[in-house]
Design brief:
Length: about 160
């Protein structure tokens, strides 16, 4: 029997310029060792000073895509989290630039589920996005419009759902 995937004791970096978002995520991830940064510079210093299992990166306000490149360079699994950069284009950019997921802040109350999916994928040798669309299909359809898949079908064709 496979071991249960858990976030217990994982080292998580939360980077967001909004204190309430950081605090909410820290509360939701109370089983983890959480560090917070409110700026690019603070996050860069933390990434360069210590290892993390996962970094949750806001896109706007903290240069999230620049931090994604830095996290990737340090072998840190990174998740993009956004409220103001919600677009099919940023989904694609997140995927193409190596993020393990792209999550709307509106869904952050389910962060434990999303992060566990990523760890499960890693443990099983699957792509980290394997459950992404199944978890967020209704959100994407509601937010981007029901025809967004037709406009941006290349992303759905490239995400390995297995």
């Amino acid at each position: 029997m496979a071991a249960e995937i858990t976030l217990e004791g994982k080292k998580i970096l939360i980077v967001d310029d909004e204190r309430d978002v950081r605090e909410t995520l820290e509360d939701l991830l109370s089983m983890c060792e959480v560090s917070q940064a409110e700026s690019y510079d603070q996050a860069k210093a933390l990434i360069e000073a210590q290892p993390f299992d996962i970094a949750i990166l806001d896109i706007m306000g903290v240069d999230g895509f620049d931090l994604l490149a830095l996290a990737n360079a340090h072998g840190i699994t990174a998740v993009m989290l956004t409220a103001h950069a919600l677009s099919p284009e940023n989904v694609i950019k997140s995927f193409d630039e190596g993020a393990a997921s792209y999550l709307p802040k509106e869904e952050m109350n389910r962060i434990e589920v999303f992060l566990t999916d990523i760890l499960e994928a890693k443990a099983q040798g699957k792509h980290p996005w394997w459950k992404w669309y199944g978890r967020l299909a209704s959100f994407c359809d509601r937010t981007f419009g029901p025809d967004w898949k037709g406009r941006k079908s290349d992303i759905l064709d490239r995400i390995p759902f297995y």
